[in-house]
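Crash report, auto-generated. Payload:
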Amino acid sequence: MTSSMMIFYLLAALLVLSSLMVVFQRNVVHCAMALVAALFLIAILFVTLQAAMVGVLQILVYAGAIMVLFLFVIMLLNPTALEPRRGLSWGFGMLVALLLAGALAALVSHNEAPADPFAATELFGAPESLAKSLFTDFVLPFEIASVLLLIAIVGAVVLAKREHN
Amino acid sequence: MTDVNLVPLLPATQVLLTALVVLLLDLFYQEGEKGLLAWVSLLGLALCAGETLFLWGSQESAFGDAVMLDNFALFFTQIFLGAAALTILSSVHYIRQAEIHEGEFYALVLFATTGMILMAAAKDLIVFFLALETMSIAVYILTGIWRASGRSSEAAMKYFLMGAFATGFLLYGIALIYGATGSTHLNEISNYLIESPEDWPPYLIGGALLLLVGFAFKVGAVPFHFWVPDVYEGAPTPVTGFMSVAVKAAAFAAWARILMHQLAPLDSDWAFPLWVLAIITMTLGNLLAISQASVKRMLAYSSIAHAGYLLVALVVGEEWGGLPLLFYLLTYAFMAFGAFAVITALAETEQSPEDYRDFSGLGFKHPFLGMAMTLFMLSLAGFPPLAGFAGKFYVFRSAVLSGHLALAIIGVLNSLLSVIYYLRVIVAMYMEEGGAEGKSFRQAPYLYIAIGLAALGTLYLGILPARALEWSRVAFLSLD
Amino acid sequence: MDHPYFPLLVLFAIAGVVVVALLTLAQSIGPKSISPVKADPFESGNPPRGDARIRFSVRFYLVAMLFLIFDLEVVFLYPWAILFRRLGWFGVIEMGIFLALLLIGFIYVWKKGALEWD
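Recovered output after restart:
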């Protein structure tokens, strides 16, 4: 077992733990905090996979911006502790989860894991190479993204702004 | 450095610029001047339509083949432009009465149209995905733009959640296909499929099936249809017309280009699921439409049923199904838009659904609306010599010719079933007395012009379909 | 041991040990005196009133949404800045279009008064 594998298993264990906490905590704010932890751990995983830029974006966008929105919604709705879910929807959820787990197990057993998962990612996620493909090969999607953001701005104002009178 | 050729983006850029101009003019116009915004939007759409006609026949690609301006893209661009123009014409009075912000409304219709045009031209899954989101988010907002109406907000919420769910399927499918083939580019993906036949990893098939599910959501095919009735009923009626015509056409355009054409080597894997999907979509759509009390909701289910007929063309496959698919979408655009436009004329209030009784005696009170609605209902039901008949005829003919006899028979039976609920509207209009509670109808000249245009289109495509059929054929053949 | 991120693992290990050690030490050797007054939340000497979690005004939501959108815009600027020299005028134009569209969004937000509190 190499040191990179040890780091991976440590991070993965913590990630699974914090993800479980997101689901099983009864207090919504605690769930949100566990989610922040999970997002940070994913960011670290990206960094260990040589994708430093994606890791930084993960923290900026998910742990930063999207979590702000999550917390705002929580503060707006101000929910009390959640009731434990039982009954039909719970059973259905379990069924879906088991099916997904089965699919995942089938996929994992079908595909041989590479001996060193970190070797193949050399320079792949380096900021320069990411920027190069974003701004040369994927210029068009990049520009469409700005249209998408503009529509989102219009939508936020149209749907959420308080009307006078 | 990059393969920059702006010609393929010309139609989309034209509409986008119009949207930006409308958005900015709205900020600087006084309240009284805002009526001009509709005309600015229509002018932009007309310019774009001119460009599209001028570019007809071109075969230009750019950005490393990420977009392709061929006759297929241009054909659909014309449908989107027409739908957007009719939507704007039919909403001028409506949005003023409902106190919807004019500038944002027109700008969002144009933004959505931009996304649709790019969707029909996308040759790269990332471009397709972003174009789809551009369209979808604009339409989510349009659904909820009537702030005073609780139904509108609820519909927007449902549409957004369901749409985001579908988006997840599409994106996951794209990711799996990328993982299997190493590219998001459709030409490279189809090269991979042709060069290494049968040596495909299982998640490639999984990715393709996820794409299928995502598309089925977007077009509202059973069993992914449950959002359709609520959203179509709750959205402002001109927006419902726009959704049922343009959004559906855009989704089918991308479906035809991506799954039917470029990923054609995989079709043995989804042929059966698609076959089942087509049958249950037609049948359930029609059965549920019969039991509806609201005309708007009935049309929502009828729109599901028509998605089922279109799925038949997809099952039939590239060789036979391409032309009927495109032609059907064209005919459906006129008749479905017209039907929703007549409902737009119904001066709706917040609490009351548009039920059949509101149409009692319409044929005598408003002969024009009555005639037009009769025309649209008969066309949707598939009576000759109207557009709906021609569209269905070519779809079912292609099913028979390609050996899908069962599908054709089920389709025709469904078509007969649909006569029940379409005729109910006509019966209400001409054979029932207008009740005291019958609602009034808007006196809206532009809306009447839009209805008239849709009626003309329905008649023209039914009586003289030859030219449109030729366009559809040329458009589908331009796919490479 | 030669992996570039091995120090990271060491850092995690030290951090874990320090946290556990400090908590156990404080728990075991620190003095404890518990009273109801001490268990109250500290509000500058005043007796606490109501719940700490009050409902926020819905107007914050619009601010949060707009923050999110413009934050995403900034995200694109970082990789662009790295490659700025190599992209040359092409890069200036493509980022110019991107920023122009968002500038229109900004003008829109400004003129609509969405940045004002009421």
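Post-recovery validation: Residues 6-111 of chain C form a domain with the Methane Monooxygenase Hydroxylase; Chain G, domain 1 fold (CATH 1.20.58.1610).
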